[in-house]
Amino acid sequence: MRNIIQQLRRLNFPILAAMFVLLGLGIVFIYSATANMADREGIRLYEKQIGWAALGFACFLGFALTDYHYLTRLAWWIYAAGLILLALVFVPHIGLEMYGAKRWLQVGGARLFQPAEFMKIALAIVLARLFGWPGRPVRRLRYAVIGVLVTLLPAALIIKQPDLGTAIVFFPVLLGVMFAAGAPGKTIFFFLATAGLIVLLALSVVFLPARFGLPEQEHKELLMRAGITPYQRERILVFFDSGRDPLGSGWNKAQSRIAVGSGGLFGKGFLRGTQNILGFLPRTVKPTDFVFAVIAEEKGFAGVLFTLTVFAVLIYGALRSAAVARDKMGRLLCVGLAAMIFCHIFINIAMTVGLAPITGIPLPLISYGGTFIVSTMSALGIVQSVHIRGDWQS
């Protein structure tokens, strides 16, 4: 017990405080986002989020009190388990298909969890071991190639679900770990240039065939061969043309931008956001992907600034833990997990204000979602484990 108390005293308290503030914001604005629902569904989401936060805090403490070296020793086993879980979503009666996507595991029709969230942490752990193993010459190209392969494999399975937004998060984790590990700048630049080229090719497949008169059916077949689904194509087209299909595929983007822009300096007031309460923001995604728009509308620029400041404290705390880590693996683990959380924050807010295509990425600790809350708090628990053991000899 004395050892546990000593460890708890060494927690990174800025991370702890930021985590609780963001969880509180999430619960309050999930309540607001679902307050206009006629049935008790909205209330259940608000109550469920409290339950998920409690479970997440148990995981947070569990990982914080566990020496992260146990995780890095089992890194490849954890990674393999993540791949198996990802593959299981495609097995009938084990994977659950919802809204045309297979992202959940089930038992008897009841949703269990999304393996992709577990895989993000598994990837950060295995990359920390790959690039942080003592004496490993990480400047050699073969380690960069291995890093890319272990990132591409789960990302490909997640794209197959399909869940392109979650798959995108994997690559900043890889680049963050490689950069912190001291990989050659030209190698990192090469991967960035390759990623940029892939994006350009994908955009070419979306835009150019129509300009050159390719029939629509053949264009659709070409997109499918390129791995771009019809709804992903629409989201890309809406991103580049805000006036496209405002009552259909462009609805979410348009209403979110109106909500953010109409908040003013101090917002319209809690439960008084017209975009929110009157249902212009779709009820199915208000508590998840667009909860930031609800905050912006009801608390205005001041609320947005406060939220961003708390997120900045959270990311700074994780990088501070990386700086005081006892060894390189601990440092890389913190950097990888910080990159994962930052990527979620950046993409979610960017898509909410119209600076990125709609990708379905939730906002850490604020958006509704059991698996996502638990995995994010578990990741922060691992960061705390590194921080606790920074220069401490137990």
List strands and helices in order, with pairings.
Elements: H1 2-9, H2 13-34, H3 41-64, H4 68-73, H5 75-88, E1 95-98, E2 101-107, E3 110-111, H6 115-132, H7 141-160, H8 164-181, H9 185-211, H10 216-225, H11 230-240, H12 251-261, H13 274-277, H14 291-323, H15 328-352, H16 370-388
Antiparallel strand pairs: 1-2, 2-3
Helix pairs in contact: 2-3, 2-14, 3-16, 5-6, 5-7, 6-7, 6-8, 6-15, 7-8, 8-15, 9-10, 12-14, 14-15, 14-16, 15-16
Overview of the structural elements:
By secondary structure, this protein is mostly helical. Helix content is 69%, strand content 3%. The protein contains 16 helices and 3 strands. Strands 1-2-3 form a 3-stranded antiparallel beta sheet, with helices on one face. A hairpin with a 2-residue loop joins strand 1 and strand 2 (101-107). Helix 6 packs antiparallel against helix 7 (141-160) and helix 9 packs antiparallel against helix 10. The longest helix is centred in the last third of the chain and has 33 residues, at 291-323. The protein is globular, with a radius of gyration of 21 Å. The two termini are 13 Å apart.
